[in-house]
Amino acid sequence: MEGIVVKIEYHSDLKELQSDAQLARLLSAECQSAPFDRLAWWEALGKHCAIAPLLAVAREGDAVAVLPLTGDGGHLSALANWYTFRFRPVVSHPPQAEVLLAQLARDLAAKARRLTLAGLPEEDGTASRIESAFRRAGWLVMREASDTNHVLEISGRSFDDYIAGRPGKLRTTLKRKTRKVAVEIITRFDAQAWEQYEAIYAESWKPEEGSPNFLRAFAKSEGEAGRLRLGIARAADDPQGPAIAAQMWTVEGGTAFIHKLAHRESARPLSPGSILSAALLRHVIEVDRVALVDFGTGDDPYKRDWMEQVRPRYRLDMFRPLDPHNWLIVARIGLRRLAASAKGG
C-alpha cells in the first residue's frame, strides 16, 4: 500500500453526483450495461421505495470504486431490493478493485459495526473480492449462499436449435397452443399496454407488487432508451379482448433481463405465459442477437425449463469483532451454522 493515496468520500444526496463528471459517467448507461449498476437505479430506489442511499466512494488517481449502501444505526446493507438481480461494487479499473475496496473497508469501520451484502455474484469474482478486502481490513466475515440465478447462454444457437433442446413437455405445449395465443412485443413504453400489465399482475398468482411506481418509472425510462421489451398476449380467437399474459424484459450489452411475468389464472388452460416466453426468446435471439438471457433470482421450477445454467448468489455478513453490539449476533449465527452442519452430517 506504500505510495498509494486513496481518497474516501460518502454521498447521501445523489443529485450532487451529477456535477461530478467522473462519477456521473461511470454510473451511467454509457459505462454500465446492467441497470443495477447505475445511478438512475439507485435514485429510483430512493424515490419510489424509500431506501435512503449512502454511496461509499474510493478514489486513487483515475481509479474509482463505488459501494452503494443503505442503512443506519451502525448496520449498513446493500443498496438494493427485490427488483435487483445482483449486487456488486462499481469499479472503473478492475485490477485496482481490491485495493480500493480494502481502503473503503478500513474507513467504513468508523461508520458501521456491521455490513450485510446479499445477492453477490461469484462468476466475476465479486463475492471473493469483497470478502478478501474486508478480512484484510480487520472485519470478521461470514459467507453463505443466499440465492440462485438462472441464465441461458445462447452460444450462437438459432431459436429453433434452442427450442429443440427444451424438455419434451414444454415443446409439446408450445406446439399445441402457440396458435391459440396472439402475441405482441412492444419496444417502447406505452401507457395503455402498461395498464394491461398491471391488471394482469393483479389477477395473477404473483404476490402483491413491491413498488408499482418504481417498476413503471423503470419501464418508462427503459422504453425511452430503446431497451424495453414488453410482451402482451391475448387469446387468438379474441384479439381485441383483454390481455391474458404480460412480461417485462429489457435488453442491453448483449443480455436480455427478464424482470416480470404474469398471466391471468383464468387463462391458464391456454398456457399464455409459456407462449409469450417463447415469443420473447425468439425476439431477443433473432432480432436483438443477445448472448445471454438472465432470469434473475429465485429457484422457481419453471425457470429450469427455459434456462440451462444456475449461478449462486452469496451473502456476506461482516462485523467489527471488538464491538460488543456484535457479540450476541455473531454467537447466534455461529450456533445456527453448527446446528445446520450437524443436521447435514
From TrEMBL:
Top-level taxonomic group: Bacteria
BioF2-like acetyltransferase domain segment(s): 169-304
Protein name per its UniProtKB record: BioF2-like acetyltransferase domain-containing protein
